[in-house]
Amino acid sequence: MPQIYLYRAPVDFRLQAFGLAALVERELGHNPFSGALYAFTNRRRNKIKCVMWEDNGFVLYYKMHCCKAGRWRQDFWTICMAIHSRQAASPSTRISSFLMQLGG
Of all helices (H) and strands (E), which one includes residue 5? Predict the structure, then answer.
């Protein structure tokens, strides 16, 4: 079952899939080709990027929240931890649930 990892430090959002994969390898010591999903946020915590290796390429998910306050309605890390600890029926359900929760 794929894991979901949260990179807590702010990330330069000019990085794309390969840059984020290099960060996963260099900073976390993980294999970015393992199929795990890695979630990153910017300094203002109003954007997220998720990267994961799937079959023969990286999937990059990017979302920017545009509410009045410029912040997520719920705390980003609370959502991530709830999804991370939930036992879902299948790996794809778990990832889908994670992305739906972020959609608010």
Answer: strand 4-6
Q: Using the 8-state DSSP alphabet, how is residue 56 labeled? A: T
Structure tokens at 75: 């705390």
Question: Where does 33-80 show beta strands of DSSP type E?
Answer: 37-41, 47-54, 57-64
CA distance 23 to 40: 10
Q: What does pTM read for this prediction?
A: 0.71
Least confident of 6-10, 16-20, 57-61, 84-88: 84-88
CA–CA separation, 67 vs 103, rounded Å?
Answer: 12
Q: Both tokens of residue 9?
A: 């430090």
Distance of CA 92 to the CA centre of its chain: 14
